Amino acid sequence: MFDLNAYMQARTRLADTKLDELLPNADEPPQALHQAMRYSIFPGGKRIRPVLCMAAAEAVGAPPEAAILPAVAVEIFHTYTLIHDDLPCMDNDDVRRGRPAVHKVYGEANALLAGDAMQALAFELAASCPVPTEYSEGAFVLELAGIAGSRGVVGGQVEDLIAAATTPSADTIEFIHRHKTADLFVASARLGAMAGNADSEQLDALTEYALNLGLAFQITDDLLDAAADADCGSKRPASILMVCDAAAARAKAEAHIARACAAPAAFPEAQAAPLFAIARLILDRAQ
After folding, report:
1. Cα 154 from Cα 18, distance rounded (Å)
2. Cα separations (Å) of 31 from 98, 106, 110, 177?
3. Number of structural domains, the chain?
4. CATH number of the domain encompassing residue 130
5. Containing domain of residue 37, as a range?
6. Number of CB atoms found within 10 A of residue 282's CB
7. CA angle 253-254-258, nearest 5°?
8. Using one digit for the tens of pLDDT, what is the confidence trace for 154-195?
9. Which of 262, 256, 264, 263 is nearest to 282 (CA)?
10. Mean predicted lDDT score pLDDT of the chain
11. Would you tell me the crossing angle of helices 153-163 and 183-195 to the nearest 10 degrees?
C-alpha cells in the first residue's frame, strides 16, 4: 500500500533543503529583508504545492529531483502571495500558521518588499530550470507568469477584495477559488510535468487533475474554517458557504476529487499513486 505520509515527508525534506540553499542567508545585507523572507518560508506548511510538482514529474516517469527547481519556485511564489494577503491593505491577518504574520514582526514596508523579493526569486528560479526536449526556452517562466497576473492569482485576489463589499454570486466565488487558489495548483502540476518532459496528452491530464484538486482544496478550506468558527461563512465573502450549505459543498468537493482522480487514469499505477493519495488527503481533511 502506498505510504503517503512517508512520501510527503521525503518530498518535503527535498523542498526544504533546496529552499534553505537558495534563499539568501539571514545575515546577508539587507538583513531585515532576508530575515523576513526566511521567516515567511520556515517553518512551512505541508508543502502541498512543491510536493504536487514533484509528484507530477514522477507521474510521467521522471525522478522527483528533476522538478526540484520548479517545485521551490512555486513554493516561493506561493509564499509571496501569503505575505501580501496578510497585509492590512489586503486581508488584514495578524497570524499565519500559528504565529505572527510577517508584517507584525518586520513591519509593513519590509513585508511588502519581502513579498516583492520572493516573487522576483521565484521567476529567477523558473528561468534557471533545465529545459527538456519537449519544451522551448522560456517555457517555465511563461508558465509561472501565466498564473501570476491579472488573469490569474492577482485577479483572484482583486475579486476577493471586491467580494468583501458585495454579495458574491456562485460564479464569482468559483472565479475567486479558481484563480486565487486552483491556478497555483495547476502551475505546480504543469511545471512538474514539464520538468519530466511530459507530452501534450500527459500535460493536459495533469492540468485537469490539478484544477479539480485546487478547487476541492479551497472548498475543504472553507468547510474547515466554518467548523472552527460558526460565523465563518458570513465573515468570508468568498466562502462556498455563502452560496450553498455544508452538505452541498462537500458534494462539490467530492465531485472535483472524482474528476481529478479520473484525469490521470491512463498513467502507470505506481507512478500515479501519489496523485491519487494526495487527492484523497484533500478530501479527507474536511470529513
Report:
1. 26
2. 24, 11, 11, 35
3. 1
4. 1.10.600.10
5. 4-284
6. 24
7. 120
8. 999 999 999 988 889 999 999 999 999 999 999 999 999 999
9. 256
10. 94
11. 170
